[in-house]
Amino acid sequence: MDAIDQFKINQKLAWATFAFLENLTGTAAPHLVRFAGIRAGDRVLDVACGTGVVGLTAARGGARVRGIDLTPELVQHARENAALMNLEATFEEGDAESLPFPDATFDVVVSQFGHMFAPSPEVVTTQMLRVLKPGGTLAFTTWPPELFVGRWFALMGRYAPPPPPGVAPPPQWGDPNIVRERLGAAVRDVTFTRNTMYFPTLSPQHYRIQMAENFGPAKKLFEHLDATDPAKAATLRSEIDALAQPYFEDNRVRQDFLLTRAVKL
Hints:
The chain is an alpha/beta fold and 265 residues long.
């Protein structure tokens, strides 16, 4: 099997438990929907939709939403959320690097902390812009590499097996200079802003345990290290606690994110 195909299979398995965190990421979803300028009647695609927090927030405002995600457990949960909320939105399993939609289908394409995990930035960018109508809006949220979550991913990466050659680090999508380069001449009016999501927790140690038990990639990494190198696992736990401490206040961890918006030419 091709190394990238295996990488995607591993991702699909790792993200299966992410639904636990939907209430947290749901607090960021309205910011992206407003920033993207989504209006009633807009045809919206939510790329790497997870449990549908962004798509359903947009659907509640009257948008016509479709969502796509690599992980079937999350797609099923998104469908259950739509039914529970009595909202019409379509969610399906699929690859952000091979979107199953015709060219120029959507008025708005969004992704919340999702497309950034696609192995090839060039491919996922091309796909999102391909299915977007000329004059349509592309908007997404990502983690700046110099702030807490970006640094957390970098720390985890130092302990994890290396990805296949050519796979770009997800926090690169949080650097405005890299984003501008990736979007290139296909867009105009590139706009950036920042916002904050707060993770409620009693201590940095509680944060680390919650992530290790429920955030798929961290869960898989700790399971591997605990089985093969317990001393290394203990060191990683200590490093996560130390990293989180400066961002911890009032029983919550501060998580700053970048919002990007552009208009397709």
